[in-house]
Design goal:
The chain is mainly alpha-helical. The protein contains 13 helices and 2 strands, in the order H-H-H-H-H-H-H-H-H-H-E-E-H-H-H. 60% of the residues lie in helices and 3% in strands. A two-stranded antiparallel ribbon has the order 1-2. The radius of gyration is 20 Å and the shape is globular.
């Protein structure tokens, strides 16, 4: 499963190429990043805003504005995004774009700036790919497992009623999801969600590994929330798109908290495979959960 995600044209392979190009051509020199200055920090922020616009915006234009693959491989036939008072600007699309850019990319860029500053000052341990190629490959294989496990744990935490009402509900306002829905979150959720990259501050890693990790966290949701199983170009599959696993989470809420890269949902009986039996089980769990909350 993990090997297939890397050797096929997938999100992970795309993020690896992007990370290599960013490392090769766009990162500041270590001597420059030792001190915080707008001269190198601002380009980091602007680059990330542009990347989000290209990825999430491009997917939205292709799939929803121009509908270049119609409804082929679309999970739900419903087409229109909501326009209601529950969204900022009374528009789901504008709401999603605002929170993705104003909060999501900003906090992503703060994490990245912190890493680059720490690397410039020799605070974070960095290894050489030439000297340790096997470690580099192991990191690539480990990132999906690490990210999936972290996501499962913090996602269960975010569904704790006090945090859900004050933080995570903003993301779950999106029933009919699209590429901009993925990173439409409360700032507190962005801080928690992206925090898995902090592992690179304490365990020897490499800037390419860090970038792959943070791209998977911040750009991956544009794909996983795209609403289409795969992206087609002239009837040929170009790249994997939305996860059916997470699509079901937005529909039934109390299930599929993690991803398929780690078996936490199966182990803790929160897995939903799309069957009627699983739906009945999840609904019964929700009824018991809400009954316990009201009687507590």
């Amino acid at each position: 499963m993990l090997a297939k995600r890397w050797v096929t044209l997938s999100r992970n392979a795309l993020f690896l190429v992007m990370a290599f190009l960013a490392y090769r051509y766009l990162l500041p020199e270590l001597t420059v990043s030792r001190s915080l200055s707008l001269g190198w920090v601002l380009p980091v922020f602007l680059r990330n805003y542009l990347i989000m616009l290209l990825i999430a915006g491009g997917l939205h234009l292709y799939l929803f504005t121009y509908r270049r693959q119609g409804k082929r491989l679309k999970y739900l036939a419903h087409e229109d995004f909501e326009k209601s008072g529950k969204f900022s600007f009374r528009s789901q699309l504008r709401d999603n774009i605002f929170w993705s850019l104003a909060s999501g990319v900003t906090i992503w860029s703060i994490y990245e700036t912190g890493y680059l500053w720490a690397m410039g000052n020799g605070v974070v341990p960095v290894f050489s790919i030439i000297e340790h190629p096997i470690v580099f490959i192991l990191w690539l294989l480990f990132i999906p497992i690490l990210a999936s496990s972290h996501f499962y744990l913090i996602h269960r935490l975010l569904h704790w009623p006090p945090l859900y009402k004050s933080v995570h509900r903003l993301h779950h306002r999106n029933i009919h999801i699209g590429p901009w829905s993925g990173m439409s979150m409360h700032p507190v959720e962005h801080l928690i969600y992206i925090s898995s990259v902090l592992v690179h501050f304490v365990i020897p890693s490499h800037p390419i590994i860090f970038l792959v990790h943070i791209y998977s966290r911040c750009l991956g949701p544009a794909f996983s929330h795209a609403g289409f199983e795969k992206l087609l170009l002239k009837d040929k599959v170009v790249v994997d798109a939305a996860d059916f696993h997470h699509q079901l989470h937005h529909r039934y809420f109390e299930c599929n908290y993690g991803t398929v890269d780690a078996p936490w949902d199966r182990w803790f009986r929160s897995y939903h495979d799309g069957s009627e039996k699983a739906t009945a089980r999840v609904r019964e769990q929700r009824r018991r959960m809400y009954r316990n909350r009201t009687t507590a």
